[in-house]
Amino acid sequence: MTATSTDLRIRTATTTDWPAIWPIWHRVVSAGETYTWHPATTEPAARAAWMAPPPAAVFVAERLVPAAGARIVATAQLKPVQPGLGDHVANAGFMVDPDQAGGGIGRRLAGHVLDEARRRGYTAMQFNAVVEANIRAVGLWRSLGFEVIGTVPRAFRHPSAGLVGLHIMHREL
Questions:
Q1: What share of residues in the chain are helix, strand, coil (percent, to 5)?
Q2: Does a cis peptide bond (omega within 30 degrees of 0) precede residue 19?
Q3: 141 with 124: CB under 8 angstroms?
Q4: Model confidence over 73-103: pLDDT tens digits?
Q5: How far is CA 27 from CA 30, 31, 33, in A?
Q6: In the chain, beta strands by DSSP E
Q7: Secondary structure, 3-state, 58-95
Q8: b/e per residue, 30-57, with b = 16+ CB within 10 A?
Q9: What is the pLDDT of residue 69?
Q10: Torsion of the alpha carbons at 72, 44, 107 and 120, rounded to the nearest 10
């Protein structure tokens, strides 16, 4: 199902959203295909990493379901790529419920986060570890103006593709 503006709402997450974020986070990370976190990361460790304090911000995408309310189907984290003198460049992470993938939710959430990064005064965005074998994500980021500025060869142990590279991707805001 394609995400339309009427059935998807993107908003800043609150601490009370974590119980709905955790199942998505856990499914994505435990698959071991797209993030460098250990697949067996515990819930408390995941919460501490994802729900980081300011200047980090977390967002959720909610699918509006008639007569059932809203259900969180994706999440994103926005933060400085480095502290101090590097904090004008943003970093972000995105997770879409695997059952909802391919319907435009990631693209909508990415657009929201890019706008929010600009609003917060970031001048660029950098991804430090985009798994080379994650063709869907690499394609999305390229379509949104990101370029691969380097690849760390054989830096990720993919469960089916073996050792693959981690792209560093960047774009000006």
A1: 30, 40, 30
A2: no
A3: no
A4: 999 999 999 999 999 999 999 999 999 988 9
A5: 5, 6, 11
A6: 8-12, 57-65, 69-80, 89-96, 124-131, 147-158, 162-172
A7: EEEEEEEECCCEEEEEEEEEEEECCCHHHCCEEEEEEE
A8: eebbbbebeeebeeeebbeebbeeeeeb
A9: 80
A10: 110
What's the token pair of residue 12? Answer: 């800043």
The amino acid occupying position 163 is L
User: What are the tokens at 70?
Assistant: 């809203």
How much is the pTM?
Answer: 0.92
Residues making up the chain, counted from first to last: 173
Report how far apart, in Å, the C-alpha atoms of 28 and of each of 8, 64, 153, 159, 172 are. Answer: 20, 22, 23, 13, 28
CB atoms within 10 A of CB 76: 23
